Amino acid sequence: MAKELKMDDIDHKILDMLVENTRIPYTDIAKKLYISAGTVHIRVKKMEEIGIIKGSSLIVDWKKLGYTFTAYVGLLINNTSQIKFILERLKQIPNVTVAHVTSGRFNIYCKIRSRSTTHAKNIIFSIDEIDGVYRSESMISLEESISDKQRLMHSIFTDKNQSNF
């Protein structure tokens, strides 16, 4: 039987602070919520045990590392039985930072980061060369306009129908 945790307002606030800053010390969370650091630790551990929290991540400013160009590449593949093979090949291209198996127009949808349009072209050509890729279609990202990790979480917390997590 899967573990279940009924989250209360304190859990929501802890999670909210961790989403905003994964490196915030438990003592800082505790001070803001007027609870002990031990309580924060226990609640975070419970959220980790049931899978609400899975690891943590950093936000990298790719532009400061010279990767100013972002593109999305939709892949049409010859046969869906080749999806696993193609995903394994995509994992070997470090500039492919995200890949989704999708329904609709494309079988796989990728996000790539590169230094320039020429660099992106070379990455896309290497993707096109993967055995089983029939065709690709690219879209250039002009800017990332919305990158919000908290809005959905807040709406889940306030949704009256979502009483259990």
Write the layout of secondary structure elements.
Blueprint: H1 9-20, H2 26-33, H3 37-49, E1 69-77, H4 83-91, E2 96-101, E3 108-114, H5 117-128, E4 133-141, H6 151-158
Antiparallel strand pairs: 1-3, 1-4, 2-3
Helix pairs in contact: 2-3
Pfam family, one: AsnC_trans_reg
Organism: marine metagenome
InterPro entries: AsnC-type_HTH_dom, Dimeric_a/b-barrel, Tscrpt_reg_AsnC-like, Tscrpt_reg_AsnC/Lrp_C, WH-like_DNA-bd_sf, WH_DNA-bd_sf
What does this structure look like?
- The protein is elongated, with a radius of gyration of 21 Å.
- The chain has a 4-stranded antiparallel beta sheet, with helices on one face.
- By secondary structure, it is of the alpha+beta class.
- 38% of the residues lie in helices and 19% in strands.
- The chain contains 6 helices and 4 strands, in the order H-H-H-E-H-E-E-H-E-H.
- A hairpin with a 6-residue loop joins strand 2 and strand 3.
- Keywords: DNA-binding, Transcription, Transcription regulation.
- This is HTH asnC-type domain-containing protein.
- It holds the Pfam family AsnC_trans_reg.
- One of its GO terms (cellular component) is cytosol.
